[in-house]
Amino acid sequence: MEITEKGFIFSDDRNLVDVNAVHNYLSTQSYWAKEIPFELVQKSIANSLCFGVYKDGKQAGFARWVTDKATFAYLCDVYIEENFRGLGLSKKLMSLMMFHPDLQGLRTYCLATLDAHGLYAQFGFKPVGSPEKLMEIRIQDIYINGKGEM
Hints:
alpha+beta; 4 helices; 25% strand; Acetyltransferase_Butenolide
């Protein structure tokens, strides 16, 4: 699937993803994946349903779903490069991703965010209804110190 709008290309073609650009953003600018190794970004892209935003052949944004394409999808690594923010690209990207044919009829769509609740609420996301049912193992700063701490 590929859509062109206002000079930007939105695509689910994993082969178009500039892994170096995504790694650079995640490892240096994101709050969730600081110092993530290149090989892990490469592996995560290879094993996810990926979406890119491109301008003049360069990566302007990215997002990916970790999904079984049957019951569950977890949205992660969503970003728009700073110089392209405020143009509605994240809303367009979310629209494309939410209506992707491989993600229809799932039981659960989830994500974690520190600061984009307003964006995701526009697409039906809301706080977890039964947080007492959720559990996690979270290894803090795993990429920063190499091993992380439980």
